Amino acid sequence: MNTNQGYRIGPGATSLLMIFVALCMTTVSVLTLINAMHDTRLTDRSQTKIKAFYAADVRVQQELADLDAKLAEARAAVKLAARAETSAPEGEPAAQSADAYAVKVRAIASELAAEPPIEEANDLTMVFAVPLDEMQQIAVKVRISLTPTGARYTVVSQATQSIGEWVPDEVITVF
């Protein structure tokens, strides 16, 4: 008589277990591959956006450099004219040179600004924008001094703005 009453696993059960483990590993590896492909696409889009932002930022800095050069040129021309006027015996050269500089600054700001410049006490505030892509731009607000002494300009703000029209997604039905 056979006295061994223990439970035995047959060869079919181990084969089924191995097939189940192989299927699980295949599923996990496919999901990992899909996740890696999505991460690659996201990284590529992010890299494109970052490159576009920094290219636009370079254009902003070039615009500011052009503004600075034009303001320096206007300031030098006014100082040269003031020196010529000081050799003349009459008139108020300081007031005339300040007015001449303010006129030149207004002309420069009107030329470069996207919107009409706003004049405050001794400052002129202008805004210009550099396109980032079809949906965004970098808007820069600059305060320019109307006096021929001190700082020529100050960047008040620089921000990324949306310029495209927002279109709501109507695919999902909300009750």
Per-chain topology:
Blueprint: H1 11-86, H2 93-112, E1 118-119, E2 123-131, E3 136-145, E4 153-162
Antiparallel strand pairs: 1-2, 2-3, 3-4
Molecular structure report:
Helix 1 runs antiparallel to helix 2 (93-112). A hairpin with a 7-residue loop joins strand 3 and strand 4. The protein is of the alpha+beta class and 175 residues long. The relative contact order is 0.10. Helices cover 55% and strands 18% of the residues. The protein has helices at 11-86, 93-112; strands at 118-119, 123-131, 136-145, 153-162. It has a 4-stranded antiparallel beta sheet with strand order 1-2-3-4. The mean pLDDT is 85.
Number of strands: 4
Which strand order do you get reading across the main beta sheet?
A: 1-2-3-4
Q: Could you state the oligomeric state of the chains shown?
A: single chain
Outline the low-pLDDT stretches.
none
Dominant shape: rod-shaped
Key phrases:
alpha+beta; 4 strands; 4-stranded antiparallel β-sheet; rod-shaped; 175 residues; 2 helices
